[in-house]
Amino acid sequence: MVESKKALWVVFRPESPETGAAMREKFEGSYPVFKEMPGLYSKHWWVNEERGEWGALYVFDTEKDLREYIESDRWLNKVPEKYGYKPAEVSILDVGPILCREAVTRP
């Protein structure tokens, strides 16, 4: 049986939000790590400066890959350490058809 892709939706709501430009600078430094991460199909960062939120949508090849990530040291310790706070919202989602018009090879 083929396992279907699963998504992880994450929202951060820091007490003192940074600008979109400052957050983008932090995001860009992580691209090489995620590009080589086994089981990760794609990762999309977003920032909503008006609401003081930022986050990511991860798409994993399988639910097993997603579960391994959210149980990993990176997720449990390194992400909160890097940003100084934990996610305010985390959801696991089913994924429908995926359309990618172009591949991004660098931030």
Explain this structure.
With 107 residues, this protein is of the alpha+beta class. 31% of the residues lie in helices and 28% in strands. The chain is built from 4 helices and 4 strands. The radius of gyration is 14 Å and the shape is globular. The protein starts with 5 loop residues before the first strand and ends in a 13-residue tail after the last strand. 8% of the residues are buried.
Terminal Cα separation, in Å? 36 Å
Q: How would you write the strand order of the largest sheet?
A: 2-3-1-4
Helix content: 25-40%
Q: Kindly state the mean pLDDT as a whole number?
A: 87
Characterize the quaternary organization of these chains: single chain
Rg, Cα atoms, Å: 14 Å
Major sheet summary line? 4 strands, antiparallel
Short description:
The protein is α+β, with helices and mostly antiparallel strands. Helices cover 31% and strands 28% of the residues.
Q: Key features?
A:
107 residues, alpha+beta, 4-stranded antiparallel sheet
Topology:
Layout: E1 6-12, H1 20-28, H2 31-35, E2 40-48, E3 53-60, H3 63-70, H4 73-83, E4 89-94
Antiparallel strand pairs: 1-3, 1-4, 2-3
